[in-house]
C-alpha cells in the first residue's frame, strides 16, 4: 500500500470517528433535559397546602372544569391522606367524575368512599350519588330502546340505581335525599315494567306466544302496581287467543275488566294517543 493510500485510510477513520462523536452528543442532547430542547415540566401544585389544593379543586368543580377538579382532588388525597380535607375530596371526586361523564370512575370513587367510611355523616349522600350515577346511565339505556332488539336488552344500570336508592331510604329514612330517591325508584319500577312488557310485545309480534306469556307474567309478578300491567294482561289474553287456549283467554279478559273497567286495550287494542301496542317498534 502506498503512503498516499495509508494517509487516506487514516483520514477516513478520523472523519468517521468525528461524525460518530457528533451524533452521540446530539442524541444525548435529545434525551437529557439539560440541553434545553425538552425542558422539564413544572408541577404548579408543588408546595401547595391542603387548603390551597382543596380551594382550587372546589373552584374548578364549581366552574365546570371537572377534569381539573379531579386532578386536584387526587393530588390532595395522595399528599394529605389523613388531613381534614381527604374524605371530602374522595366524595367530591366521585361527583366530579359523574358530572364529567366518567361513569366507571365515578362509581369506583363512590364505592370506595362507602367502603372506607360506612359511618361517615355524608354516607347517605354517597348512596344517593351512586343511585344518580346509575340512574343517569339508565336514561341512556332508555334512549337506546328503539335501536336494539328487546330480547337483547339488560337494564342493569336501572337495577343498580334502584338498589342504591333503596339502601338510602332504608338506612336513612329521614335523609334530605330520601324524597327524591323515592320518586326516582317509582320511575325505575315503571321503566322496568315497561321493559318486561316490551319484551312480551316483541315475542308476540314474532309469534312466540308462550315466551310472550312468560314475560308478561314476569311483569305482573314483579311490578304488580305499575301502569304497564294493563298491557301485560292484554298481551297474555291475545297470546292465549293465538294459542287456542280459550279458557285462559277468557279468564285473563275477565281480570282486565275487573281491574281496568275502562281499558283502552280492550276497546281499541292500544292506549289512547299511542301507536297500536303491536306497532311500538
Automatic annotation (TrEMBL):
One of its GO terms (cellular component) is Bam protein complex. Residues 50-253 form the Outer membrane lipoprotein BamD-like domain. It is a lipid-anchor. InterPro entries: BamD (IPR017689), BamD-like (IPR039565), TPR-like_helical_dom_sf (IPR011990). Keywords: Cell outer membrane, Lipoprotein, Membrane, Palmitate, Signal. It comes from the Bacteria. It is found in: Cell outer membrane. PROSITE patterns: PROKAR_LIPOPROTEIN. GO terms for biological process: Gram-negative-bacterium-type cell outer membrane assembly; protein insertion into membrane. NCBIfam families: OM_YfiO (TIGR03302). Part of the Bam complex. PANTHER family: OUTER MEMBRANE PROTEIN ASSEMBLY FACTOR BAMD, SOLUBLE LYTIC MUREIN TRANSGLYCOSYLASE-RELATED. Part of the outer membrane protein assembly complex, which is involved in assembly and insertion of beta-barrel proteins into the outer membrane. Belongs to the BamD family. This is Outer membrane protein assembly factor BamD. It comes from Ralstonia insidiosa. The lineage of its organism: Bacteria, Pseudomonadati, Pseudomonadota, Betaproteobacteria, Burkholderiales.
